[in-house]
Amino acid sequence: QSTIDAFQQRNETFRNAIAKEYEDTPVEVSNAELGKRAPRWIRDNEVTMCMKCKEPFNALTRRRHHCRACGHVVCWKCSDYKAHLEYDGNKLNKVCKDCYHVIIGCTDSEEKKRKGILEIESAEVSGNSVICSFLQYMEKSKPWQKAWCVIPKQEALVLYMYGAPQDVKALATIPLLGYTVDDTPRSADLPHSFKLTQSKSVHSFAADNEELKQKWLKVIHLAVKGETRECENE
pLDDT tens, 140-181? Predict the structure, then answer.
């Protein structure tokens, strides 16, 4: 028992040290720092798709890997590159395509192609949004599913839906202008739910609590009328 207790104490100390180091490490590594300092790894559960090619992960053919230079979660195809990393004693490490080009000094001509509306990264819009949070979402007769929902400040009349906060491609967008808001849940609905309807299109959402629901409704009630307001990102 004393051996078990000692082991658990050491394990707890180790976890605390790792957690503190994780918190103190800046999220993004600049191009100038690539390979020179260890990145903070994006957690596996923060993404549902490869952060480079945007293909969904699955357990068999597209598993999660981490780029050792930027810390992004990528699939095996997008991490099939190797570069010498200074922070790891100049050893060869698996890196993503983008980091590989930066580290070895090449440029990708397609890197700066204009992004489509669904290809705006979640972290990019969440960091400059009117409101963002997880909501439960249901369309037609499909089951409820959890989605990371964002209304960006630059497009305050559009609701973006992602699978997770760090995804690099939106699953769907809803132009809110002209929708009707129904904020009275029916008995079959989840608590704290509301609906957006326009013609035959119906989108159902549910927040975790009434306070969060009301925050969303304040923004959406304005957006469906073509109006906006500056709000703190909650």
Answer: 778 899 999 999 888 889 999 999 888 888 888 899 988 999
For residue 80, the one-letter residue type is D
Percentage helix, strand, coil for the chain under 3-state DSSP, each rounded to 5: 25, 25, 50
186 three-class SS: coil
CA dist 136 and 148 (Å) reads 9
CATH superfamily of this structure's domain 1-111: Zinc/RING finger domain, C3HC4 (zinc finger) (3.30.40.10)
Give, as one character, the DSSP assignment of residue 45. Answer: G
How far apart CA 58 and CA 53 sit, in angstroms, is 14
pLDDT in tens, 26-51: 557 788 888 898 998 898 888 999 99
Pairing assessment for the beta strands 193-198 and 201-206 based on DSSP bridges: antiparallel
